Amino acid sequence: MSHEPFHGVFPYLVSPIHESGAVKRDVLARLCRDLIEAGVHGLTPLGSTGEFAYLTWEQKRDVVETVVEAAGGRVPVIAGVAATTIAEAERQAGTFEQMGCDGILAIMEAYFPVGDDGTFDYFKAIADAVSLPVVLYTNPNFQRSDLTLPVIARLAAIENVRYLKDASSNTGRLLSIIDRVGDRLQVFSASAHIPACVMLIGGVGWMAGPACLAPARSVALYELCRQGEWDRAMTAQRELWALNQAFAAYNLAACVKGGLELLGYDVGGPLPPQAPLPDHGREALRDTLRRLGALEEMAAD
């Protein structure tokens, strides 16, 4: 797929893994096809919801290969690259480009803290390793070494670093980023509680796990934002907030996978030692999906 500017709703896909360790390719492919049918604008394997930190390299390759094949060029696939070393990050990025991905979501893992220069070198190496557009991923709540504003500004000067996905939920930080590099980087939001706000201040969409459970609702919210229908957008935003309340109480992958199981996708639970969704969490999520109409849509299908 030739590169057109990325925009809209990119669900962070789960990684369905069989007890044997094999990727459940048929389940993942079906999910991808259904999300595309629901109108999403792209797919993102190996994001946070995809449990990238818990997968082997072979599993990561199988996940990405499955998603690229299922997408079939209909929507762009932006694959997550995450590593603790530059050499491994370069290997992953180069392989995913060869497999047919349309973009790279660059994530930095760290055990020991890494300073600004090392952080810049890591992301620059990923950009240099591919000809694809690169999305910088920043999440100060979970990452040991995160992207500071000065590093983001330096990276924005690299030709194929074109996007930033911010999971800080801090609109003040986002305003600072957009004010400084908004002419060079397009911003994606995360989660289901802040996209309308990010769109209002200049964002172009969001990448988030909850979109797997409510893709049509997410796409409708995006279209309302694009049309400037802010009152209606905020009403839709508040309805989707219920999903985030569940995710705040439980493990993210457990919630998305648990929700998908309720919707009929045999994705299994989160990879150990992560805890599966408890029964009371499952029932709370069932009620949320019912209120959003997702269970009724599943029954109709």
Structure description:
- With 301 residues, the protein is α/β, with parallel strands linked by helices.
- The protein has a single domain, classed as TIM Barrel (Alpha-Beta Barrel), CATH 3.20.20.
- Helices cover 47% and strands 12% of the residues.
- The chain contains twelve helices and seven strands.
- A seven-stranded parallel beta sheet has the order 1-7-6-5-4-3-2.
- Helix 1 runs parallel beside helix 2.
- The relative contact order is 0.13.
- The mean pLDDT is 92.
What number of domains?
1
- CATH homologous superfamily heading: Aldolase class I
Total of helices: 12
Question: What is the N-to-C succession of helices and strands?
Answer: EHHEHEHEHEHEHEHHHHH
Strand content: 5-15%
Radius of gyration: 18 Å
What is the name of the CATH topology? TIM Barrel
Q: Specify the CATH architecture.
A: Alpha-Beta Barrel
Order of strands side by side in the largest beta sheet?
Answer: 1-7-6-5-4-3-2
Query: Per the principal axes of the C-alpha atoms, what is the gross shape?
Result: globular
Number of strands: 7
* Average pLDDT, all residues: 92
Pick out the low-confidence regions.
none
Helix/strand/pairing category:
alpha/beta
Described by strand count, sense and barrel closure, the largest sheet is: 7 strands, parallel
Distance N to C terminus: 30 Å
Helical residues, percent? 40-55%
